[in-house]
Amino acid sequence: MKNSKIIAILLSLALITGFAFAQGRTETTVEEEYLSTVEDIIIQELTAAPDRDSKLVALQYLESAIAGGRASPDMAAALDSLAGEGIYNESRTDGRMANNYPDIRKKACDLLGEIHTEESKNSLMKVALADNEPMVTTAAIRALGNVGINDNDEVVNTIAWAQKKFARINPTSSLALEVLNAYEKLAPTVKDNSDMVRSISEIAVNYNYVTPVRQKALQLLKTLTGR
């Protein structure tokens, strides 16, 4: 009910904005700009709302917009905020964290992986470095591989750092597998692969990981080193 009221108000405001844009524009252009304006306003308001349910609805709007090729800088900014919900965007009630939503952060990372921009890459690197939830970091690493940007090996080095951290505190096979998948995708962009090879080697000999993951690490090492 709360979300419905918010959206109804925003739609009314967006209608006024849409009519203002209509002056002197083609019907197709007006329709596209109106839809973009409506989505951006709704998403911004839902993202800023304190409750988890509003943020889930924001993610639904974002997923639909990205799938339809309508991603905007404002939407990328909303995803950056959602990906840091409870990590670098903290809200506290009576001294206790009130917005620690790992599922929200994970979904936001997955969607950021569909926006292949420098801004998305930067958002995902922040999450990979700061988040202590394996499923969120796993999503951030997977998304970094999908984005495919690796200027000066900064992304590969970030992934290697995250892999090393979790290998010590909470070795997780699913995270290690996504590390390997990301390395495989980013390998053509790497200038100095020493950190990447070291990271893969550590996965290959870590018996906390399931056998298929260690075997994949060995195979990737052979591919990268020619041995």
> Quick one: biggest sheet?
2 strands, antiparallel
> How is the largest sheet built, in terms of strand order?
1-2
Radius of gyration: 20 Å
Q: Output the number of helix runs.
A: 11
Strand content: under 5%
Helix content: over 70%
Give the helix/strand class: mainly alpha
How many domain units? 2
Judging from the principal axes of the Cα atoms, what is the shape? Answer: globular
List the helices and strands and how they pair.
Elements: H1 2-21, H2 27-48, H3 52-67, H4 73-83, E1 92-93, E2 96-97, H5 102-112, H6 118-130, H7 134-147, H8 154-169, H9 173-186, H10 194-204, H11 211-225
Antiparallel strand pairs: 1-2
Give structural attributes.
11 helices, single chain, 2 strands, 72% helix, 2 domains, 227 residues, two-stranded antiparallel ribbon, mainly alpha
Description of the molecule:
This protein has 227 residues and is an all-alpha fold. The protein folds into two domains: 1-117, no CATH class; 150-227, no CATH class. It is 72% helix and 2% strand. It has eleven helices and two strands. It has helices spanning 2-21, 27-48, 52-67, 73-83, 102-112, 118-130, 134-147, 154-169, 173-186, 194-204, 211-225; strands spanning 92-93, 96-97. The chain has a two-stranded antiparallel sheet. A hairpin with a 2-residue loop joins strand 1 and strand 2. Helix 4 runs antiparallel to helix 5 (102-112) and helix 7 runs antiparallel to helix 8 (154-169). The radius of gyration is 20 Å and the shape is globular. The protein starts with a helix and ends with a helix. The model is unreliable at 13-28 (pLDDT under 50).
